[in-house]
Specification:
The protein is built from three helices and three strands, in the order E-E-H-H-H-E. By secondary structure, the chain is an alpha+beta fold. 4% of the residues are buried.
């Protein structure tokens, strides 16, 4: 089923994408895609080598704390 995956933090959108989700594997793939997109955005925003190092997965995980993740039919 085509499903819209939204991630918000403090009411602001962090990620939104449409994915074909039908089971645990495709749900995991959708979450992985969202993670990769967020990581690429952080890489693009990095202004120095030090800032780039800060964008490792732990940093993204820290930013994902207390987010709201919702699913709806697309």
């Amino acid at each position: 089923m085509k499903t819209r995956l939204r991630i918000r933090k403090d009411g602001q959108p962090v990620y939104e994408g449409i994915h074909d989700i039908s089971d645990a594997d495709t749900f995991g793939a959708a979450c992985s895609s969202a993670w990769s997109t967020l990581r690429e955005q952080k890489f693009a925003q990095a202004s120095s080598i030090g800032a780039l190092i800060d964008t490792f997965d732990q940093r993204i995980l820290d930013e994902m704390l207390e987010t709201e993740i919702t699913l709806s039919k697309a």
